[in-house]
Every structure is written in structure tokens, then in C-alpha cells.
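agent> Task received from the user: take the single chain below, predict its 3D structure, and emit C-alpha cells. No templates, no multimer pairing.
agent> Plan: (1) validate residues, (2) run structure prediction, (3) serialize to C-alpha cells, (4) report one or two observations.
agent> Step 1 OK, no nonstandard residues flagged.
tool_call: predict_structure(input=
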Amino acid sequence: MTPTRQVATFSTGTGAAGAGARRATAVAKKAGRLRKVPSKNLAIFTRQLSVMIDAGLPLVQCLELLSSEEPNAGLAEAVKRVQSDVEAGASLAEAMQRQPHAFNPLFTHMVAAGEAGGILDTILKRLSTYIEKQVKLEAQVKSAMIYPIAVLSIAVIVVAVILWKVIPTFASLFAGLNATLPLATRIVIRASDMFVIALPALVIGGVGLSALGRRYYGTPAGRLRLDGWLLRVPMLGTILRKVAVARFCRTLGTLISSGVPILSGLDITARTSGNAVVEAAVRQARVRIERGETIATPLRATGVFPPMVAQMIGAGEQTGSLDVMLAKIAEVYEDEVDVAVAGLLTVLEPVMIAFLGVIVGGIVISMYLPLFELITQLS
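)
tool_result: status=success, residues=379
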């Protein structure tokens, strides 16, 4: 196992120290209910703070300047609170720990490592680079998911409007003509009648199912089941798995290179993985690593990480360059995500257009079939 520097950790004590810890916990819970700060704003803040500290400006002055210039109100308020706590005698990492909606455990532990090693500016630069790469990775996943969701949403809205407003007009016309309707037309008119009757129930049911789904996903079992299902979805699941591997390697490599112990790094990586299945796998591997096993073997045993990843991590452990190897793996999988997202969008675009054309076109044609027959008879 690669040796790493030990860094200061946050701990609770008795007496005044215990009271301070309880106060920090209460503040953290209150801050946790606030809206999460966008990663893009956090990356810009982190890079600006590293530049200011590298230039020799006092920490309190840096925080004051950045809070006054920050466009995001949530982050600006969090930085002001951090500034106030630092002025009161807290370390930067302890002050940031009290604002979890802005600074996650990975951020605060790396800042603690930077303060302990006297390389805070360097650590902040690594953090900003890490966050920027995570923003890019998240944007790639969103681009892969937004397109099909948008097309399906448009299809649902168009079909709903046609069934609700257009089809009843045609139905009244056909009833006045006493025409014999083809089977396809009768099916569409029947569907329209049922849709109009059931529309209130569909709206209420949709809202209820959405609320229940969010509540279910908020439970550990629900999150584990739904995240596992997402990883098994064709094409999209492959992309999400590659994203998870890239995030794991990037996060753990950044933490180890910053001096955070491996066990603490694995714990932080699990909490910031973004997928319950990956989180459970990392925690399972961490238990075995804590018993003295290497990192590669437990990760391979989880079945979540590809064998090549475990093999490369094992090589990094043997050569004493685990952080470098993890960074290389992250770069490889980030590039693979680029290719996979481009391929997915290339396949989805014609499929979704064809799907929308068949649905809408089929409804329109079924409505015009009786008119064609009437015109033929009149001719």
C-alpha cells in the first residue's frame, strides 16, 4: 500500500471542545438544508482563492474580496460565514466544514491537508482542476440524457394536445357525416375519449408518482435499487459506469496526491461517488483494505470496477505511484465517456425522430383515412 502523509482530522472532544463540535454540527445541519452551490461557481472561487493566496494576500482579505465579488448568493453567503469563523480563530477547513452546502467533505479534507502541509495554494489549484473536470464530466452525462428526455417530452405534449383538442373536432365531423370509420380511426377516437375523461386523474397520478419516486429514491434501499437499474440500462448504463470509474479514480487520486490517508480517501470517495452501487462497493472494499489487503483485490471482487482498472491500480501500488496511476485511469475513462456520449447521440437522433414521426404521423393519417374514403366515394 502506498504510504501517505497523515493530516489533521476533525475531532470532537469534551467540555468546550465538545460544545464547539456540537455547535459546528448544528450549523452544518442548518447549512445542509440550503441550496447546493453550483460546481462551476465553486471551481472559479477555488481557483481565484489559490491565486490570491499564492500572491501573498492574507486569508481573511482573500475571503472578503471573493465574497463581495461572488455572483452566486449562496456561495457568497457561505464565504462570508467562513470569513467570520476564520476571524474568530477557526482554521479554514473547520470553517468550511460548517458550510456543507458549499464545501463537501472532499473539499474540506483537502484544505485541511493543505493547511497541515503548508501548501494550501497548491491544494486549491488541484481542487479547482478537479472540480472543473467533474463539471465537464457531469455536462457530458446531461447531454446524453437531455436529448432523449426532451424528444420524449415533446412527443408526449404533442400527442396529448392532439388527443385533447384535435381528435374531438374530427370525431364530431365524422359523426355528422354518418361515415363508416376504419379501425385505426375508431381506435384513435376511443383513445381520445378515454384521455379526455382520464386527464385529471393522469395529472394527479403523475404528480403523485413523481413525489413517491423522489421519496423512494431518498431512502438507502430505493437509491441502491434505482442506481443499480440505471447501470444496467443499455448504452446509458455503460456511460454511467465509465463516469463512476472516472470520478472514483479522479477523486481518490486527487486526495492521495494531496496527502490524505488512503482509508480516509476511500471514505470520502464513497460519499462523493454520486451512485449508491459504487458507494456500497467502495465501502465494501474499504473494510477489506483496512484489514491489510491491497486496494486492487477488493475492488476487483466487487464486480463494479472493470478488471483493467483493478490491474492498473495494482500496478500503481507496486510501483509506489498510485496517485499518478489513478489520474491516468481517470483520463482514459473521461476520454471514453466523450466517445460514448457522441456515439449515443448519433444513434439516438434518428431513432427519436423516427419514433416521433411514427406516433404523430400515425394519428394524423388515421384521422384523414375516412376523408380519403369519402372523397373516393363522391368521385
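agent> Step 4: summary for the user.
Residues 1-32 have pLDDT under 50 and may be disordered.
agent> Done.
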